[in-house]
Specification:
CATH superfamily of the largest domain: HUPs
Structural class: alpha/beta
Helix content: 40-55%
CATH architecture of the largest domain: 3-Layer(aba) Sandwich
Shape: globular
Order of helices and strands: HHHEHHEEEHEHEHEHHHHEHEHHHHH
Largest sheet: 4 strands, mixed
Length: about 500
């Protein structure tokens, strides 16, 4: 009790602040317990001791000379003299960006907070976050955040290793924004996607989002009117496509989802880039040539489609594109325009986007398995729209064209119908076609029983997604607010790129 009273007296003193605690031999466990209690309290009041003269030296001498600074959250608080406090008002991320801007104002062009607990900002305590910001030549900021799991343990030297890797990256690219992959995904709004769209594209986009990529999903409604569309149908299909993507897992908080027509930047940049190429260059693109009927009836929008597509890519300084082989000529045109821009203006501002190779089996029509599944097919039973009701899914799968052989086997040439169903099964379950066939044969499943099992798998997979889709479609105001938020975030990036291009080209 006497020892505890001494401790309590020292704590009550106004100058309660100690740099060190020294203890000697204690004659009993009870006394050690009191000392431990006191030490725990002291450490909670001042968990880290930093010589203030060092902090001032960093702030006033070192930071003004630095190009890159990579503090963790504790070092950030020391440099700015303020704590990071979560107010649970939804503005936590904005507060972090303001703190990074304060560090920019001290000198560095690039500021990276190497790690901060998500729980400190009201988030998941099992996650850490990295915040990065670069100040451009036009005094604007390019920013991004990466989330990664918190690992329990004590690690030495990881901060130094992180800084060394950042420096190595700058030596290679000199562009912080490329440190995180920026992936652009585009989809024309033509009602609800079918299961072929989902397995071939949407499911992979969600995987990219969940792996931490900076994902931008563009509802390509400008591309949808290269041939005129009925206005009400376009509005309806755009909302249906947006609701389907969000219901399937595209998170408007983690990714950007927006309508292409909401950003005038696309058409402006397309016009500027169009000055860098020729009619002959665009006319040689196979997808254009395949759609041209004759020179007198070809819409101009169809001809300019590839240039607008290049503008879509460069507007966000896209680093990666999840596209199929049929889009390679478009990617080559994009690379050509990047080279032309550098040739004319001697400014290397666009990363050369990389094609993301993915193993994609094209899902075929359920009624005509020699053709790919398509929304334009007049036979509704030729496809499964991902938001179809259970009865429709069951009907379309059971009526899918197979053959007279009841055995389940995979042969795309000789048995395209059954093989197509196996491909869908593989996409839905992430199993190999070999294991699916082996399992079916082991359980003595004929094609009829296999169809029933496949229909049930599809129904279960999309059940909750369909409910979310209906909820979104019944709350148009909320759905539009999500797209408005996407527009604002996309505009923030697009403004910087377009202003930079116009400045380089001499417009201001």
């Amino acid at each position: 009790d006497e020892l505890r009273a001494i401790f309590q007296g020292s704590i009550a003193h106004e100058s309660f602040q100690y740099d060190y605690i020294l203890t000697g031999y204690m004659g009993s466990g009870e006394l050690l317990h009191v000392v431990a209690e006191y030490v725990r309290l002291i450490k909670s009041k001042s968990p880290h001791y930093v010589d203030q003269s060092c902090v001032e030296m960093y702030k006033n001498v070192v930071l003004p000379l630095a190009d890159i600074v990579t503090p963790n959250d504790f070092e950030l608080e020391q440099l700015l003299g303020k704590q990071i406090i979560c107010n649970h008002d939804g503005n936590e991320e904005q507060i972090i960006w303001q703190l990074l801007e304060s560090l920019h104002n001290m000198g560095p062009s690039h500021v990276i907070i190497s790690s901060i607990s998500a729980a400190k900002l009201g988030g998941d305590k099992t996650m850490l976050q990295m915040y990065a910001s670069s100040k451009t030549s036009m005094n604007q900021y390019e920013r991004f955040r990466i989330d990664f799991p918190y690992l329990e343990g004590c690690f030495t030297g990881t901060g130094d290793l992180f800084s060394a890797l950042i420096l190595a990256w700058f030596h290679k690219e000199n562009n912080l924004i490329m440190f995180q992959r920026r992936v652009l995904c585009g989809i024309q709004p033509s009602n609800v996607p079918h299961i072929g769209n989902y397995l071939g594209a949407v499911k992979k986009w969600i995987d990219l989002q969940n792996s931490g990529d900076n994902l931008i999903v563009m509802l390509a409604d400008l591309h949808a009117v290269t041939i005129p569309r009925e206005p009400d149908a376009l509005r309806k299909s755009t909302l249906e496509t947006a609701a389907s993507l969000i219901a399937c897992g595209i998170d408007p908080k983690r990714s950007i989802i927006y309508r292409q027509s909401d950003l005038h930047h696309h058409t402006q940049l397309s016009w500027l880039l169009g000055t860098l190429t020729t009619v002959q260059k665009v006319g040689h693109i196979p997808t254009y040539k395949s759609k041209v009927k004759d020179d007198t009836s070809t819409p101009l929008g169809l001809f300019l489609y590839p240039v607008l597509q290049t503008a879509d890519i460069l507007l966000f300084k896209t680093t990666h594109l999840p596209i199929g082989e049929d889009q390679i000529p478009h990617l080559q045109l994009c690379t050509y325009m990047i080279e032309k821009f550098y040739h004319y203006y001697k400014q290397n501002i666009f990363p050369v986007p990389q094609m993301m190779a993915t193993e994609t089996t094209r899902i075929r029509s359920l009624r005509h398995p020699e053709q790919k599944m398509s929304k334009s097919d007049y036979e509704e039973r030729s496809r499964i729209d991902i938001m179809d009701d259970e009865k429709t899914i069951q009907d379309h799968v059971m009526k899918a064209l197979t053959d007279f052989n009841a055995q389940v086997s995979y042969d795309r040439e000789q048995r395209p119908g059954v093989s197509n169903l196996i491909d869908i099964y593989a996409g839905m379950t992430n199993q190999s076609t070999e294991s699916i066939v082996a399992e079916a044969q082991q359980n003595n499943l004929n094609t009829g029983a296999f169809k029933k099992r496949l229909a049930q798998i599809i129904i279960e997979h999309f059940r909750s997604k369909r409910l979310e889709y209906l909820k979104l479609m019944n709350d148009r105001t909320y759905l539009l607010s999500l797209l408005d938020n996407g527009r604002e975030r996309a505009t923030e990036i697009a403004d910087k790129t377009l202003n930079e291009v116009k400045h380089i080209m001499g417009f201001h």
